[in-house]
From TrEMBL:
InterPro entries per record: AB_hydrolase_1, AB_hydrolase_fold
Ranges for domain AB hydrolase-1: 191-298
Protein name: Probable lysophospholipase BODYGUARD 3
Source taxon at top rank: Eukaryota
One GO MF term attached to the UniProt entry: hydrolase activity
Family matches, as Pfam families: Abhydrolase_1
Organism this protein belongs to: Sesamum indicum (Oriental sesame)
Amino acid sequence: MAVEKHVVSVLTMAGGILHEILSFIVFTMLDLLDFLLCYAFKVADVIMEAERKPCYCSSGKEAITSSGKILVSEQGESKIVSLTCSKLQLEEISDTLYARPSWVSKFSKCSFLQSSKRISRRSAGPVRPTFTVNPTIVEMLQGRIGRQQMFPVPRWSDCDCKTCTSWTSSSCKETLFVKADGAKDIVQEDVLFIHGFISSSAFWTETLYPNFSKSAKSKYRLLAVDLLGFGRSPKPTDSLYTLREHLEMIERSVLEAYNVKSFHIVAHSLGCILALALAVKHPGSVKSLTLLAPPYFPAPKGEASAQHMMRRIAPRRLWPMITFGASIACWYEHITRAFCLVMCKNHRLWESITRLLTGNRVRTYLFDCFFLHTHNAAWHTLHNIICGTAGKIEGYLDEVENKLKCEITILHGKDDELIPVECSYNVQSRIPRAHVKVVENKDHITIVVGRQKAFARELEGIWNSAASGHRV
């Protein structure tokens, strides 16, 4: 028995070492591929759009604080980027957008740094205060100031079908797409559903909506939203998809448009971050908070929260496959743009192929979830929301614990390999009264898909208990 355990231990160790070696080789090759695709897309942008678009591979440049257009405060002050007509906090922009170390990126930036040092030595005269920022952020902000169109046209690599560009119509208000169901004439309570990353309202409407009881639909108004940049919602090309932008669009499109005064929230994955921020902003309006697989990894003391979050959800490993996919999505700006060019731009083709191969037996609502977005939306939302808000989550959780009196329920699939169960217990450590339920044999997606009937009953129980003041 002891010999067998020793053999298993040795094989496990050998497998781990082999996995590390293969992961290093594959991701080094992906580093190089992303580096090459950077230049390929720059050429394509010039050909297709007659201008070179900035990307986050670019080295930092100095923004002069007295320029009059973009003002960046010195370190230790309020740290805001000031625009002509509005302000955007620099804290909302994650450094993981442009700080993803690899040997290729370090080599490509080496010459820039050396030349910058030589130039600084030669400079003379009074020094004007400057702040090093990524040029992509500066150029996107400058583009906002000089923007002439209310609705920027899609980029050549984005889909231009009617579904994806319906929001550009002059008759369409600049609000999110909201799928409403349930109570209409006499609405007793509202429920807001917020989907996760690379998803849409179909994640809820195609699973839960058909399974709510008649009594629930007569009482509750169900409001599932497509987040900014996803599904049928606006996908502005000049947006940085910050937390503020996402929250303001939810408020404008749901709370104000539907005259919502108090509401229940159901959120999945990335949506949990937005749900917490929304609850903190409207503490007296939230009647219950249901979080599915909340991504919360407390950063060790002295470690940058955003970078820690990126390494936890995207550890540059080949296995499991969902982690490999997350690593590609998080680390490679140009590989993910190539993916969107092939998959998202041609989502109608892939839908048709799926229907043909399956004899139209498979419902294709998951295509809406996975392919109706732009690269700009996915890239910025991933970094500015999932990674960039990592340092704010603890504050949100503390405020939820101290200021909100509503019922808080957390559900997590035990087999979730993307956001492990420990995240839900991490949340509970900050909010002790939160009830955590771990669902056996379910993962990040099947926590809802495949158990929609049972989950619909659970939600109805949560809402009813919130009304009566008793936990189910």
